[in-house]
Amino acid sequence: MNRTYAVIMAGGVGSRFWPSSRAASPKQLLDLTGSGLTMIAATVDRLRSEVPPERVIVVTGRVTVDAVAKALPDVPRENILAEPMGRNTAPCIGWAALHVRRRDPEGVLAVMPSDHLVADVPGFMSSVRAAVGAARGGALVTFGIEPDRPETGFGYIEMGAETSAGVREVVRFVEKPDLETARGYLEAGTFAWNSGMFFFTAKRILDEIERQMPDLSAGLARIDGAIGTDRQAAVLDEAFPGLPSESIDYGIMEGASGILCVPSSFGWSDLGSWAAAFDLSAKDDDGNAVDADVISIGSGDCLVRAEGDKIIALVGVEDLVVVDTGDALLVCRRDSSQDVKKVVDTLKKLGRDDLL
Amino acid sequence: MNRTYAVIMAGGVGSRFWPSSRAASPKQLLDLTGSGLTMIAATVDRLRSEVPPERVIVVTGRVTVDAVAKALPDVPRENILAEPMGRNTAPCIGWAALHVRRRDPEGVLAVMPSDHLVADVPGFMSSVRAAVGAARGGALVTFGIEPDRPETGFGYIEMGAETSAGVREVVRFVEKPDLETARGYLEAGTFAWNSGMFFFTAKRILDEIERQMPDLSAGLARIDGAIGTDRQAAVLDEAFPGLPSESIDYGIMEGASGILCVPSSFGWSDLGSWAAAFDLSAKDDDGNAVDADVISIGSGDCLVRAEGDKIIALVGVEDLVVVDTGDALLVCRRDSSQDVKKVVDTLKKLGRDDLL
């Protein structure tokens, strides 16, 4: 049949979006750019022309499974898999692949994070179709996002020769570079960002796991044997903690051969901070990105969000992030928004689990 | 008997302290510097060695009279006068003088705003005693606060020859100067700030009102005739709107002769803005003045206040005022805090009386 299944990875918390992001309402369940959709709903939505909801599989945590189900009302509840604990992406993808294999061993997994943004959806879908086509032939496929800046926050892919229209070989995956290296990559033109989206058949990825990660493969076999039985929950609880906590990039991709990539430029963003959310939000006449009742006096270029109908007055301020959740308030320089993680670290140290 | 009566003027709102200051909880009912006392309670408190609570008379508005009574539990309730409407300081002081005259025509009124700060209370009391002494002799007396900067926000007093130890003639009152004039005043050394505190006997001020403000005098006579009768409230309601809305400075002081002043330097502040509240508050190790549960990451020199037990995280910000009242939030550059009035103006235009 060779149909496409979306595997949406929704296990993260996104602590850089505190105080909006919390254990029970992580980044993917927020609308951070005023789109009107949660990020996970937008992720499912943009795939809809190729992947109907019944072929969407979501892997998330137990704390968030109900909220995810609520955010995706047309995805069948049995397609929403709750990990007993986060074990990085290789176990997550392997587990989803078991479910796809049961329906169709040649079914193609379109694996993607639940909390990324895509500006150009037709462009994205065109890349998805190219990647799915290549994956049907049995390849491991990824996107190679054309860089527009010497970004040091992403891993890169060195691309080789074209193997078919719009598809190239992957020479190697490289880790996050320093700035000088990133500048070289940008100049070279043969390096692309690794967006963490992957395409492969269930059979191919499970074969790779068997070859490269035998421990994971064994654990998955135990889980697979219990799917649909009354031992399912117990086996999952027992097996999951023993699975190796490893990413698909390190565990599989770097050791595989014949990987292909689809060079792409569809306005992708991993939306890594409040500053990125500001950049991608609509602005008012003062240049503020506002999701709140705001009075702005001599102020501009601020991101302002508030829950409830509180009024927020800005006076003489610029380039701030102001986020009010009722129980917590963040006031942050926009260009310091990577440091919001430090607030979360401090709250952990203080034992303020109520705010995490 | 010639006793001293404190007349505490508590009619203002102090809209520059929005969102903390509201119609029902104006500036004088707040603790803006972390002293542990409301400003009005501190005002009464610092006079206590000369003026016991039973000789404290407070003039406030009807909206605030209950809150004022609560803030001053040892001031007899009948000493707290509620104006039907604000008519500036001359009617306010005249009305209080009627009450003092009934107890003692030679009683000295020590008239002072309810929302100013004094750093050096012994120094202040020494000035009060000097001023009261001069007022007992029948003079109109004020303080001449020694300026420490060319302030353009206050009126000034030009001081003349010394008439007795620590008491000088007033040559003239001058309005708020421009910066150049203020610099000249500072250099001259004979100009002092007018703090809006005055001392005179009930008889003297009511005689001056009769001479200089006959309309006010006539209105006060009607009110006086009804004090203690069952017509009191009705006469007040009827007479008050007709009283001329005039300040004691313009209405009386500028047209009076033989005014004296007590040169003083007791760390006086009219606490005109959040910036002044910051300056006069204790700071933590980051230089923040904090009355809230704050996590400060790379931040400093901010004033932070919050009602309730909300947590406030500052990340990479400096020189801000952050005030959270649950229904409203102010984020303001410290050196823009005069513009907080503009927020109040905007709220008025929007008809948001719930936030005023």
Question: What would your notes on this structure say?
Answer:
2 copies of one chain form a homodimer. Chain A has helices spanning 39-46, 65-71, 89-103, 121-136, 179-188, 202-212, 214-226, 232-239, 248-251, 274-279, 340-349; strands spanning 4-10, 56-61, 80-83, 108-113, 117-118, 141-145, 156-164, 167-174, 191-201, 260-264, 268-269, 289-291, 293-297, 303-306, 311-315, 320-324, 328-333. The first copy, chain A, has 356 residues and is α/β, with parallel strands linked by helices. Chain A folds into 2 domains: 4-269, Spore Coat Polysaccharide Biosynthesis Protein SpsA, Chain A; 274-355, no CATH class. In chain A, the strands form 4 sheets. The first copy, chain A, has a 5-stranded mixed beta barrel with strand order 6-9-7-8-10. A 4-stranded mixed β-sheet of chain A has the order 12-14-16-17. Chain A has a two-stranded antiparallel sheet with strand order 5-11. The longest helix of chain A is centred in the middle third of the chain and has 16 residues, at 121-136. The first copy, chain A, is globular. At the A-B interface, strand 15, strand 16, strand 17 and helix 11 of A face strand 15, strand 16, strand 17 and helix 11 of B. Strand 17 of chain A pairs parallel with strand 15 of chain B, so a sheet runs across the interface.
Oligomer: homodimer
Question: Which sequence of strands runs across the widest sheet of chain A?
Answer: 6-9-7-8-10
Percent strand of chain A equals: 25-35%
Pair with the biggest interface: A-B, 36 and 36 residues
Order of helices and strands of chain A: EHEHEHEEHEEEHEHHHHEEHEEEEEEH
Radius of gyration of chain A, in Å, reads 21 Å
Query: Mean pLDDT score of chain A, rounded?
Result: 95
Query: What's the CATH class of the largest domain in chain A, please?
Result: Alpha Beta
Number of domain units of chain A: 2
Looking at this structure, what is the CATH superfamily of the largest domain in chain A?
Spore Coat Polysaccharide Biosynthesis Protein SpsA, Chain A
Total helical segments of chain A? 11
Note the gap between the termini of chain A.
44 Å
Proportion in helices of chain A: 25-40%
| CATH fold-level topology of the largest domain in chain A | Spore Coat Polysaccharide Biosynthesis Protein SpsA, Chain A
Q: How many distinct beta strands of chain A? A: 17
Helix and strand composition category of chain A? alpha/beta
